[in-house]
Design a protein that fits this description.
Length: 402
């Protein structure tokens, strides 16, 4: 699963990306600083099973700190969006094409209202950030509608003349957008008026695309720039307008400053913490001390910088990802090298034991025989639905090649 950082230009997306991943991203004061999508790895916190099992783990794909596993997740920061992007304005076509790979969105919004619709600086508080959320939703909806409209006659012919399954035809048309048959069925089942696909008009297509966007591309709003006073009232305004969407107050600049200071050993800080500890005060200039004091005051008011919370909200709540721990020796909780609990994998709720086997390696999935719940020693079948923090051994007729 991949989360895309989206939003109009010059709202702090690239700063958010750098703060979350410590990967380099070009940060500037003009629209379209980001052209090619930036890719990086962030981490979300999950409770490790090491303490419960009474073992010392040896993480390979993650880090375990005091019983908390930091599981890797992928973020992609795409080019900023401008109104009428679906018509090709600005970098619209590229932006929307880059969104195909994203399973969910973190929309970074200028909560202080100091950038206009095109991403240019304006008077603080002059722009209503609610409009930014609405225009992004509209652009993505219209983009999906256009994809559906292309060769629409072919879909209608398939339904009416060839008696093909309309859900299968829609799924085939939209599969490149990471949209599944399940997503489409949810929309159609909740809207009886859309039952006859062959009779859809433009308004029906738009309704279908809008509902599909909500279900297939869940979103979290990162209300950025909380260090600016106008942000506070605007955040409440955003929450009142979008009750079904999580709204996380955040300061990407503050988080980036903390991450860099921590990397240099100046402070002790873990992403998502409510506070930090100063370790090398003498290494700081007066200006740096003042900056950290402002960050400290901001965290005291808001609870954190919000960046880590936004990432974890999209992966845990919206994409419904849960951690599982695959092992090769169910008795010792090790891999073939003897490493204890080497990996944690994030899978979507509803994933089966066989699905986990495929996620680990295609050969394991194709040769799947059964799995073992390492906690209980119980043999489980391919349809077993994984639970959060399961420890699973896969038994397969095929070894892993390579």
């Amino acid at each position: 699963m991949i989360a895309g950082l989206v939003g109009k230009t010059h709202v702090g997306k690239s700063t958010f990306f750098s703060a979350a991943t410590l990967a380099p991203a070009k940060i500037g004061q003009v629209p379209f600083t980001t052209i090619e999508p930036n890719r990086g790895v962030a981490n979300i916190r999950v409770k490790c099973v090491c303490s419960e099992l009474g073992v010392k783990d040896e993480p390979r794909n993650s880090t375990c700190i005091n019983g908390t596993r930091w599981a890797p997740v992928e973020l992609v920061d795409v080019a900023g969006l401008v109104p009428d992007a679906h018509k090709g304005r600005g970098l619209g076509n590229k932006f929307l094409d880059d969104l195909r790979q994203a399973d969910g969105f973190i929309q970074v919004v200028d909560a202080a209202g100091c950038t206009d619709a095109n991403g240019n600086a304006c008077e603080v508080g002059a722009r209503d950030p609610v409009e930014d959320v609405r225009f992004l939703e509209y652009e993505i909806t219209m983009w999906m509608s256009q994809i559906l409209k292309k060769d629409w006659d072919k879909i209608v012919k398939g339904v009416t003349q060839l008696k093909q399954d309309p859900v299968a035809l829609l799924t085939e048309r939209l599969t490149g957008l990471m949209i599944t048959r399940k997503h489409i069925l949810v929309v159609l089942n909740s809207h009886p008026e859309l039952a006859r696909v062959d009779r859809w008009k433009d308004d029906d297509l738009k309704l279908f695309a809008e509902e599909l966007r909500r279900i297939s591309k869940p979103m979290v709003i990162a209300a950025n720039k909380i260090d600016i006073p106008t942000a506070e009232g605007n955040i409440e305004h955003i929450r009142s307008e979008f009750k079904g969407i999580p709204v996380i107050p955040c300061s990407a600049e503050a988080e980036l400053a903390l991450r860099l200071a921590s990397k240099k050993g100046v402070i002790s800080y873990m992403p998502g913490d409510r506070e930090f500890k100063l370790l090398k005060a003498d290494a700081l200039s007066d200006r740096q001390r003042e900056g950290l004091k402002r960050v400290e005051d901001l965290m005291a008011k808001w609870g954190s910088t919000g960046v880590q919370e936004a990432i974890e909200t999209v992966y845990k709540r919206e994409l419904k990802m849960i951690p599982v721990f695959p092992v090769e020796d169910a008795g010792r909780f090790t891999d073939h090298q003897g490493k204890v609990l080497p990996d944690v994998l994030l899978v979507q709720e509803g994933t089966t034991a066989k699905g986990l086997a495929y996620k680990i390696h295609t050969d394991l999935g194709e040769g799947f025989l059964y799995a073992i719940n390492a906690r209980t020693g119980q043999k489980i079948g391919e349809d077993y639905v994984l639970k959060e923090r399961d420890i699973i051994k896969i038994v397969s007729a095929k070894g892993i090649k390579g």
